[in-house]
Amino acid sequence: MILPSFLSLVLASVVAAESIHIPLTRRNPLLARDGSVDLNKVFNAAERLRGKYGYGSTPSKRQGQTVGIPVINQGQDSSYLGNVQIGTPPQTFSVVLDTGSSDLWVPSTGCAGCDSETPTFDPSKSSSVKQVATGGGDITIRYGSGEVSGTIIQETVSMGGFVNTAQTMLLATTLSDGLINGATAGIMGLAFPALTSTRSTPFWVVLANAGQLASEEMSFFFTRQSTNPAAGDLSPGGVFTLGGTNSSLFTGDIEFLDLIAGTQPTFWLLRMSEITVNGKAVQIPTGNAALSAIDTGTTLVGGPSAGVQAIYDAIPGSEPLDGQQKGFFAFPCNTKAQVTFSFGGKAWPIDVNDMNLGSIGQGFCLGGIFDLTLGSSLGDSPGNPTWVVGDTFLKNVYSVFRNTPPSIGFAHLSTAAGGSGKHHIFLPKLSQ
User: Fold this and answer.
1) Which residue positions does the secretion signal occupy (predicted)?
2) How many C-beta atoms surround the C-beta of residue 314 within 10 A?
3) What is the widest separation between alpha-carbon atoms in the chain?
4) Rounded to whole angstroms, how far apart are CA atoms 359 and 390?
5) Minimal CB count within 10 Å: which of 129, 365, 375, 414?
6) CATH architecture of 5-28+60-222
7) Among residues 77, 103, 295, 371, which one is catalytic?
8) Residue 98 catalytic?
9) Could you list the pLDDT tens digit for every one of the 432 residues in the chain?
10) Model-level pTM?
């Protein structure tokens, strides 16, 4: 596809010399070959998310720069990846950019559980790798229904030109089946140090502490490819900006909201203050039951039982699913479900295409918000989120994660980025 000249100029500004940005790639394995929703994949993703938040059954330095990194959209909005270089000479990996965790890991050569397509790091080909003595053998990081184990190393890690020559990370030797697939080669955690399993300092925090960032901010623009029939498994996913924002991708002011006070930061937490469905407010839990993790590494939106039920009660014809599908809801495919979220300020709309994950048969479509807690009272504990707000919401806003003061900002997408509540532009297909 040939882009109009004005759009080409706008996109070119994304990688302008004074403000380098990181394109993202997106992958979406949630659809079957006939275009319907692959229910098993959706429900398995939900179980992993429940586990991640404790509701499952199983608990060369560039000073003061702003760097933009292209993002890869994997599997039609399933996950968003960014490239990171590890070792000397560097080996390149596409990792999930995850504000819902804090560890960096990639698989090692010969890892158990990696499929044939999984890229792996070969430590024998790096002159800068150092193994870190832990005194207790392998370290395990658990992500709900999946986990990864391996050894702790220190290595040279770079992204978008930023470099940490002594990044502590996990070199994975064993992965649970299905934890990653295809081009995905690990996870880069972008939450706070208190959340790490490897007792490491997250890459972005290292950069901030060293004064490498022009501003202690990370920003995201995510594309929507779920409505693009020509999108491949890997397609342009947007831009991840380290050290500031990209003004070409949003319009108006950024609404910054302070993180929940009184506890050591772990997740990026806000409090859900209001939800509307088709223009009318619905009753949702308050207090600790309104804690919301803003999580770029999550595809959907999960919430507490009462809040999710209230949303679907306001969508005509919606029905709960049973069995393995418990916690999910479906509604007539011809129903337009316009939902907005507010975290104490403006109401931010979710596109109806993001609320509708696709057909499950008999004229019904699967909803993009599911019951995360399944009635659990775990969310009554201070600091534990009951809402996990993933890409179903984040595709609709420009989001900024700021370290000082700890806060999250949202802004309306610019025309070049698709505009608020509109389809995102279809960017040219990435070379694979």
Assistant:
1) 1-17
2) 19
3) 61
4) 21
5) 375
6) Beta Barrel (2.40)
7) 295
8) yes
9) 333 332 233 333 333 333 447 666 544 445 555 567 777 767 666 766 666 666 654 433 334 788 888 888 888 888 899 999 999 999 999 999 999 999 999 999 988 888 888 899 999 999 999 988 766 678 888 875 578 999 999 999 999 999 999 999 999 999 887 777 777 889 999 999 999 999 999 999 999 999 999 999 999 999 988 888 777 788 889 999 999 999 999 999 999 999 987 667 899 999 999 999 999 999 999 998 899 999 999 999 999 999 999 999 999 999 999 988 899 999 999 999 999 999 999 999 999 999 999 999 999 999 999 999 887 755 455 568 999 999 999 999 999 999 989 999 999 999 988 764 343 333 333 333
10) 0.84
Per DSSP, the residues of 58-106 read -----TTB-EEEEEEEETTTTEEEEEEEETTTTEEEEEEEETT---EEE
295 catalytic, yes or no? Answer: yes
Task: Write down the domain spans for the chain.
Answer: 5-28+60-222, 245-413
Using DSSP's 3-state secondary structure scheme, residue 364 falls into strand
Which tokens belong to 269?
A: 């937490």
Contacts of the segment 261-267: beta carbons below 8 A, 24+ positions apart? 262/382, 263/382, 263/383, 264/192, 264/194, 265/191, 265/192, 265/194, 265/406, 266/191, 266/192, 266/194, 266/195, 266/383, 267/99, 267/100, 267/191, 267/192, 267/195, 267/293, 267/294, 267/295, 267/385
- Domain 5-28+60-222 and domain 245-413 have a common topology: yes
Exposure of 88 by Cβ count < 10 A (0-12 exposed, 13-18 middle, 19+ buried)?
middle
User: Quick one: CATH architecture of 245-413?
Assistant: Beta Barrel (2.40)
- What the block records as the tokens of 340 is 């907005």
Calpha distance 26→238 (Å, rounded): 8
Residues 346/276, Cβ–Cβ less than 8 Å: no
User: In the structure encoding, which two tokens stand for residue 392, read together?
Assistant: 């179903």
Side chain identity, residue 103: D
**Phi, psi of 368, deg, nearest 5:** -85, 0
Outline where 136-222 has alpha helix (H): 203-209
From 77, 98, 103, 351, active-site residue? 98
Give the separation between CA 121 and CA 127, rounded to whole angstroms.
13
